[in-house]
Amino acid sequence: MPVCVQANVKVATYQFTDFVGASALPAPEEHDVHVWHALAGPAGLDVSRLQPLLSEEENIRAARFRFEKNRNEFVVSRGMLRLLLGCYLGVSPRKICFAYSSYGKPKMAVPRGELDLSFNVSHGDGAVLCAFAREHRVGVDVEKVRKDFNVEEVAERFFSVAERDALRNLRAHEKHDAFFRCWTRKEAYIKARGEGLSLPLHDFDVSLLPGKPATLLSTRPDANEAARWSLHDLLVGPGYAAALVVELQRVSLRAPISPEAETSSLRSQPS
Q: Pick from 268, 134, 248: which is nearest to 191 by CA?
């Protein structure tokens, strides 16, 4: 169980296996973040074990995926989320209901007892991440590092001026890894904020240089916003880049009682 302590936030990473769920799990403490990772491919989890945990709406959404690979990733991500929340909260995974913000970010519709958990999920190219914290907003992103496209062309569309300059000055063999470091860090921050596409990617800067700590360098127009968040790299497997963002200030995450609204979805991953 790797543990990283940064800015008074302790991040513990765990591998999700088919054996998780047999007993209750201790929930994250006030300044803890638990990150679970898994593979959804043929050599990964038993998808048939997780599918029955999904709601009727989630299973309908899963059936709409054209390719089995994408369908399995969705089932694993939702099954993992439900099973882990059930283990933390001491409830049946199928009884957990979600409410959605106007931007589509899910949260518990009916928090159980005094435990107020924030969570976020990411999946892509066979990898799945789930992050959990107590009363701190979190965001995660995972991407397969690809080397079959021009990173500078994509960066011109989505990265800030400072990030484009930093990427441009790297050696050729460093650029693809740096691009995905930057992309996952930016996506994790946007997901933690929970504002969707209304938060432009060029309105903030993250570090991307090799060997430098993961850092939210600056935010615009509010320069003080950068100090409110902690940014972390995650190791989830060879060939992947992943990042976590944690809000340092405690917030209330309680959602009003409402029926599960499955019309919104988690933000899709870049292709």
A: 268
Torsion on CA atoms 210, 214, 220, 223, rounded to nearest 10: -120
pLDDT at 232 over 50: yes
CA dist 143 to 35, 124, 137, 146, 181, Å? 16, 6, 21, 9, 9
Q: What is the mean pLDDT of the chain?
A: 87
In the chain the first and final C-alpha atoms are separated, in Å, by: 31
CA gap 109, 99 in Å, rounded: 5
pLDDT at 173 over 60: yes
What digits encode the pLDDT tens for the residues 69-93?
Answer: 999 999 999 999 999 999 999 999 9
Side-chain half-sphere exposure of 42, counting CA atoms within 13 A: 1
The candidate with the shortest Cα–Cα distance to 36, out of 130, 143, 144, is 130
The pLDDT > 70 percentage for the chain reads: 87
* Cis bond before residue 221 (omega within 30° of 0): yes
pTM score of the predicted model: 0.86
The domains located in the chain, with CATH, are 3-136 (3.90.470.20), 142-247 (3.90.470.20)
Residue 240 burial by Cβ neighbours in a 10 Å radius (0-12, 13-18, 19+)? buried
